[in-house]
Amino acid sequence: MSAFPNITSYSLIFFLMGVPGLEAAHAWISIPFCCLYITALSGNGIILFVIISESSLHEPPMYYFLSMLSTTDLGLCISTLVTMLGILWFNTRQISFHDCVAQTFFIQLFTVMESSVLLAMAFDHFIAICNPQRYATILTDSRIIKVWFAILVRGTVILMPLVLLLKWLSFCQSCVLHHSYCFHPDIIQLSCSGNKINSVLVLTALIVTAGVDSIFILLSYILIIKTILSIASPEEQHKAFSTCISHIGAVAIFYIPLISLYFVHKFGKVPPYVHTFMATMYLLIPPVMNPIIYSAKTKKIRRAIKKVIFPKGSEV
């Protein structure tokens, strides 16, 4: 007989482990994680603020896409912030089933949205390099707003069935989740009802979002490289390539941890804390690194940030 029979979703409580095997070191582990959260929140907040406040950053559509990226990065950070620091600082491990499902939905939503934004930015670079004469007429303000709305709707429509199916699962074993936040595969594994449909839908959602997006991003860059190589001047080639470096970096730091986490979770035989660290870092690395990459490689962003932080010095 099950140790926990007839547990309904209304009364179900999950327990988050934090970092399995390293519970005694949670206070020390919280220091680097806290620094990462501060860096991510402040960095993306500053970029979002300068894009909104600086009129010089309102014309090129690429800065609108960058503001979308910063928004999704902020959403990813905030989605895990409370449970992560709650466990590491106050040992607050309990979370209700409905709160857990809500956290899972928002983590997945912002992940899917970030993948979609990266695809939109690839399209932006493709138009700017391959068809610069029509750049301003294709990427108008109204179309960019529609793109943002489509990204939000796409993520919601794809993920809503996964969330609704979680509510139909029954749980009859220990409800301990091996992460610092509600990780969707963790919840499925705890279910004592058939979870094959959930697993298939999760894989399908991953393929039609990150899988499809990565293919179109790759195709965009194949066409971009083909166009750049047809440019006669080496200086113009270098200039065209340099405009893509920031986006290529953002794509790499998003997809490499995501793919690595999937394969380690599916096939890797590693200690539990390795799974936990990888699952946490795949959510934190992009929000931390994207502001650094774009502020370092984009002159207008760098100047705008300096103007905000050092207003008197920027006037000289």
Task: Walk me through the structure.
- With 316 residues, the protein is mainly α.
- The chain has eleven helices and three strands.
- Strands 2-1-3 form a three-stranded mixed beta sheet.
- Helix 3 runs antiparallel to helix 5 and helix 5 (141-166) packs antiparallel against helix 7.
Task: Please write out the topology.
Blueprint: E1 13-16, H1 26-53, H2 61-90, E2 94-96, H3 97-130, H4 135-138, H5 141-166, E3 176-177, H6 184-190, H7 196-229, H8 234-267, H9 272-297, H10 299-309, H11 311-315
Parallel strand pairs: 1-3
Antiparallel strand pairs: 1-2
In N-to-C order, the SSE pattern is EHHEHHHEHHHHHH
Count every beta strand, where a strand is a DSSP E run of 2 or more residues: 3
Major sheet: arrangement of strands:
2-1-3
Report the uncertain regions. Answer: 1-6
The secondary-structure class comes to mainly alpha
How far the N terminus sits from the C terminus, by CA atoms, comes to 77 Å
Largest sheet at a glance? 3 strands, mixed
What is the typical, i.e. mean, pLDDT? 85
Helices, by number, come to 11
Quick one: overall form? globular
Share of residues in strands: under 5%
Looking at the chains present, what oligomeric state does this protein adopt?
Answer: single chain
Please tell me how large the radius of gyration is.
22 Å
Helical content stands at over 70%
